[in-house]
Amino acid sequence: xxxxxxxxxxxxxxxxxxxxxxxxxxxxxxxxxxxxASQYMTKNYYTITTEKSPFCxxxxxxxxxxxxxxxxNGASSKHGLVYVTLYGTLATSAKVLLTPESIDLDPGxxxxxxxxxxxxxxxxxxxxxxxxxxxxxxxxxxxxxxxxIHIEGNLFLTEQDELVSVFQxxxxxxxxxxxxLSTLIHSFEQL
Length: 191
Hints:
44% strand; ten-stranded antiparallel beta sheet; 1 helix; single chain; 3% helix; mainly beta; elongated; three-stranded antiparallel beta sheet
């Protein structure tokens, strides 16, 4: 299990410190004594654990961009929760909530989420992406509308070994509460 050097926990949770380059990560647990961390300098290292033994997790970083508003897509800002399920060669994750609270999903914006799965999944072959709109209870006009967001291009999943996998969504228009399957098209090492 790895921990990552970072200035603060909030930056770590945003995925800003998800790298081992330049001796910026350290092993925890059994292999901690042969870690790359320096014993002569105090640094902050962060990781995420599960609530129960064995506590280990596999960290991931997901990035996607929403299409800018065009006359063709009619995209507008939405407020909601984002979820993913990862399908690997060894296991499948549970449906993971990426946003602990509703966020604004704005056309033309890029989103990065750092999250963990409680077990090793192997090589992730596909991702199921979904989102749930948060509607205004006091606005009855929103109760029966179907909301959409529009994905621009591919989804990018970075693993703790800094392998970036590129996933192509089956479509760009994502209806709320509907699954969007994205399949692996290639992987590369992060530079």
